Amino acid sequence: MDWTALFLSRVQFAATISFHIIFPAFTVGLAAWLCLLEALSLATGKSVYRRLFDFWRTVFAVAFGLGVVSGIVMAFQFGTNWSELSRQTGAIQGPLLVYESFTAFALEGSFFGVMMFGRSRVSRWLYFLSCLMVALGTTMSSFWIMVNNSWMQAPLGFSRTADGVFVPTDWFAILFSPVVWVRFPHMLLAAYLTSAFCVAATGAWHLLRGRFQDEALTMLRMGLGLAAVLVPTQLIFGHLVGDYVHDRQPAKFAAIEARWHDEQPASEVLIAWPDEQAGRNRYALSIPYAGSLIGSMRLDSREVGLADWKPQDRPPVAIPFFAFRVMVGCGLLMLVLAWYGGWQVWRGKIAGKRWLLRAIFLSFPLGFIATLTGWFVAEVGRQPWTVYGQLRTADAATPFLTAPMVAATLALFALVYAAIFAFGTIYIYRLLRSGPIGAPEPRLGETNPKRPLSILGASPGKQPDPAGQEPLR
Amino acid sequence: MIDFWLGVLALSIFLYVTLDGFDLGVGMLLPLVRDEPGRREMLAAVAPVWDGNETWLVVNGTVLFGAFPLVYATLLSAFYLPLIVMLAALILRGVSFEYRDKSVRFRAFWDWAFIGGSLVASFAQGAAVGALVVGLPIVDGYYVGGAFGWLSPFALLCGLGLCLGYMLMGAGWLAYKSPGEVQALAYRMLPKLLLGVLLFLAIAFVSAMRLDLPVMRLWSARPVLCIFPAAGGAAAILLAWAILRRRRLLPFLAAIALFAAAFGTLAVSFYPYMIPYSITAAQAAAPASSQAFLFWGAGIVILPLTLAYTLAIYVVFKGNVAAGGTYGDLQSDRAPLLPRERAPSRFGPLSKESKR
Prior knowledge:
The complex is a heterodimer.
Chain A: H1 5-44, H2 47-80, H3 83-117, H4 124-153, E1 158-160, E2 166-168, H5 171-175, H6 178-208, H7 213-248, H8 250-257, E3 268-275, E4 280-287, H9 290-296, H10 318-347, H11 354-362, H12 366-382, E5 385-387, E6 391-392, H13 393-396, H14 403-434
Antiparallel strand pairs in A: 1-2, 3-4, 5-6
Chain B: H1 2-29, H2 36-46, H3 50-67, H4 69-78, H5 80-102, H6 107-134, E1 138-139, E2 142-143, H7 153-177, H8 180-210, H9 214-221, H10 227-244, H11 250-270, E3 273-275, E4 279-280, H12 281-284, H13 288-316, E5 321-322, E6 326-327, H14 348-355
Antiparallel strand pairs in B: 1-2, 3-4, 5-6
């Protein structure tokens, strides 16, 4: 691979957006999880739900803050590195991103504040409503992002002027494209599952350490119980997303399957080493007929191979191929853990099975890995196009960027993000480790809704609070 | 519709420059105070508002993208290096604001990240404005200047000037918000900064004449526009008077008026161009279908809500910071005020503090 400005810009975008997606993937699910806890607390009046709510609310605030901070860059990178893309598609992508950021601000401005500081100031139902609105806001935010990305995957509702500029002609078609409505739930479920496994893993962790029995068991029961329902649903939506890829982006589909030549009936490559130079697979293990079955739900369908496209029109094969298998592997692992673990929780025997608790504890990254690899499949598989079939990635980049310029900014981002990420992770880890100890309500005097990171806890440099709040160490 | 979005953009840029301007200025003034309680007071003066101030930057970016994609694409790529350095500086500054409070060992590091981030971000913004005044090398709507096409002595001068201007607003804000020694420091700094800003404006004016910048030709052709610089002069006199009389809020307001005059001066010099003097608002505007799609949701519903919220936060957090860096008027529910900490020297005693 040549270290061109184009390649480095792609690496920079991939790195910054991958770093960013980790936090929304977590917070979209956590917001919904907090709603559920608050609803259960309202319905049953049990104090354990309230303690869990307060505990996860703090984690949510920190992750939310890191998501906002890392998201600022995204609002500018379309212009800095992809000026041709923003020049040509700005009339469509720009308004969608305006709605995304404005939705996020409107939400942040009103209901996030109530959720963080308003417990004692508003009625219980209004408080619950605020939690719902925060969850709705994060969900809407991801909706706009998915509309934008789905338009890049399957562009529609536009015409192009003589100089190549995309003009929106049908916003309804853009917003209600069938592609949006399979990919948006797929992303939403991914976020829910990521959070569900983090919750279950935290429960398993505290149970292993013999602390917070009540809370830990509740986290395990709810996390695994939700996952037991959500994982199969996600598999169905994953299949639907596969159907749209099969029909609308056949080259991507062929790359995911590492299918080089047309086959009828097609076999399914389970695992192999795709050799892109030679245009064939090494060490392939495949199942006859399964490729046709997966692609078209028939045993004898004809499935297209990459050789149908000129080499410059083919996506890379190795990344979509392996990333897809890692994603599916994570999904299946989650299914096993959710069903077997859920069954053990239901029988009341989970506390005795330490190996299972350890496995669930270690499962916390599964959702993050699956989400990231899923995006790798979607984005790398779309290549060599930025707007599928319309605008090539090579033509979307800022024309005058040089490799040293992009290398310098890439290094800068790497440094800054490494510092933020290291410290942010340590704080979240400390929070999760200290467990649901019943932290006091954050007070408006010390912080405010626009500073979610500051809700974390008192500063170690300050005098201990007279009210007895222990500083976080 | 184009005028509506041009107005929204002008408003959000002005809000960003004045609001984030003063908290960036406080960041640059931070090294003047060495003791921890003093630093806490300074940070507490901007803590409730800085993050909300910065959201206006994202509003600027996305509104530009949605309503004027051509300007978004051209400007952001032309300012590639300074813009990305500015973003990195703002991110680092944003998190150091919180992280410094959570750690003791790394506090000196995060403080320098905060100071450096504020300085770099302010300088980059000023340099970008200066480069726009000089004019970017643009041919047929495409920027052709390469990595450093924006760089010129005039741009660097403007970078320095904006740093001074932001510090002036920052000092004004501290004079209004802070108690005791920090406020005294702010009053000591205000006249120096005002002189610095006026000196910068004089140098900028002379060099603009000597460079024969297109801005100056416009000004000699339409002298009626001089109302903005005249207002700026009045604001400067008001500011000097307010400093002499030790007024509390007035120095800050006068500094904002000075900024408003400068902003208005630049705006009328650029109009109807968005990138002077090559791309106009009408050329850059997104098609009507995009403008309308934006108007009916973001424009007349969400934007007013965001404005109202910004206002509300400033009303909630009005009043002064208590000694030691918390809000006095919000402390009624926690009886004894925090005892003022011993003033430690910069590095050593901080680690002792952690062992308490």
